[in-house]
Amino acid sequence: MNNFTKLGFIMATVGAAVGLGNIWKFPYMVAEQGGGAFVLIYLFTIVFVGISVLIAEMLIGYLGRGDVGQSFEVLATKNKYLWGKSVFMAFTGLFILTFYSVVIGWIVRYIFLSFGSLPVGIENSKELFESFLSSDFIPQISFHTLAFIVVAFIVIKGIKSGIEKANYFLMPVLMLIIFGLFVYSISLDSFSTSLSFIFNPDFSKLNSDVMLSAVGHAFFTISLGMGTILTYSASLPKKTNIVKASFWVAFFDTAVALFAGVMIYAFLFSYTSEANSGPGLVFISLPVVFESFGVLGNFLSLIFFVGLFFAGISSAVSLLEPVVMYLIRVLKTSRAKAVIYSGLFFYIVGILVIFSSIDSTKEYLTWGDKNLFDWIDHITYLLLPLGGIIMSLFVGFVLPRELLINTMKNQMNKVVFNVWIFNLRFIIPIALIWMILDKVFS
Ligand code: PHE
């Protein structure tokens, strides 16, 4: 069987986890959602919810050895048919990919921009980015096509020669870039301002929206609740310590988000005291900051966007793999065909996502106060915790107790095991259900 090696698995799973969520989304969400208070809830969720669900999701794949639907079906002792429906999670990934690939396209545009003259002043930069989004659909579609081709190419090659190999290259380079930029940012006077912006919580800013964003983001950033981790874990070598593997993934993912966040705000505050610029943060503000560094700035901009591109690709690959695994089985088709079918879906909806920001077409793709892009982003943050609830309940109540104990007994002591199960059975589902209902009905 085409299994990962242990290191290959860690690389690929860290690759799945560390993505646009860490470097593009996390920094602007911090500013939008109340700074340090958001960061605190996010960290709290990673430690007390994320790691427990991560272990549960890995365990389902590791024991089930199949795609999302199959693993649930094989392991369920009753209601197999119903549990098999959990396969909807794999489609959440396809759904995320529709906008993810578009954003990777924007990154490609900024890689090219780094070779020429960077925008001078925030106003110019904003204008550049906004006109790109609202009128330049041909370049956007071209870059989205490029992202689609790269992702499809890697996934077609399969787990071992595609995903594992790509991540052996992408992850170390990405880590070096982020860490290098972080070390450079320490030399800026604004470094300490950035630290206190990210780590000083202002609790008056906490409300249910901030909570859901932080929890939803914690799921998004470690790739939980949509079967990526499960699907990768189905190719884990036997006798892997999944508790350790989960800690590594959560650790690297959180470290990259925090390093990237502090680094980005240190650069930003060296130029302006204004933090809040939404999804445009790395596209509008950073190029202007880099511009003020002269030629060195072009270089910094280039490596930053290349790093972001690598982060995006390794996650995009992991968003596609669950559906591909599923389609190979149910359609009894080849990997290449499964990639083309699912790829075409996200490619075409991705084009609609692009048109949902284009001035002349956006009114047809906007409902209420959100366009298609925002709706997909918004719904994702509900679907992932929902996936998390299902996985928690499944491991907590449905997995045969003996199998569970036999698998985990060398990886956790008894007390930790009991706390983990209690957490999966009660605390996590109740907290997440309460949060989702609160959001839906508020
Ligand atoms: N974790 C990725 C990121 O932070 C996104 C992702 C979500 C990838 C779910 C796979 C599954 O960008």
Could you describe the 3D structure shown?
It is a multi-pass membrane protein. It is found in: Membrane. Pfam families: SNF. The chain crosses the membrane at residues 7-24, 36-56, 87-112, 137-156, 168-187, 210-233, 245-268, 299-327, 339-358, 378-399, 419-437. Keywords: Membrane, Transmembrane, Transmembrane helix, Transport. There is one protein chain. The chain is mainly alpha-helical. The protein has helices at residues 6-17, 20-32, 36-64, 68-75, 80-84, 88-113, 122-135, 137-156, 158-186, 191-199, 208-221, 228-233, 242-269, 281-291, 295-330, 335-355, 372-398, 401-408, 414-441; strands spanning 366-367, 370-371. A two-stranded antiparallel ribbon has the order 1-2. A hairpin with a 2-residue loop joins strand 1 (366-367) and strand 2. The protein has a single domain (6-441), classed as Up-down Bundle (Amino acid/polyamine transporter I), CATH 1.20.1740. It has 19 helices and 2 strands. The protein is globular, with a radius of gyration of 21 Å. The chain is 78% helix and 1% strand. 50% of the residues are buried. Helix 6 crosses helix 8 (137-156), helix 8 packs antiparallel against helix 16 (335-355) and helix 9 crosses helix 13 (242-269). The chain binds phenylalanine (PHE). Phenylalanine binds next to helix 1, helix 2, helix 6, helix 11 and helix 15.
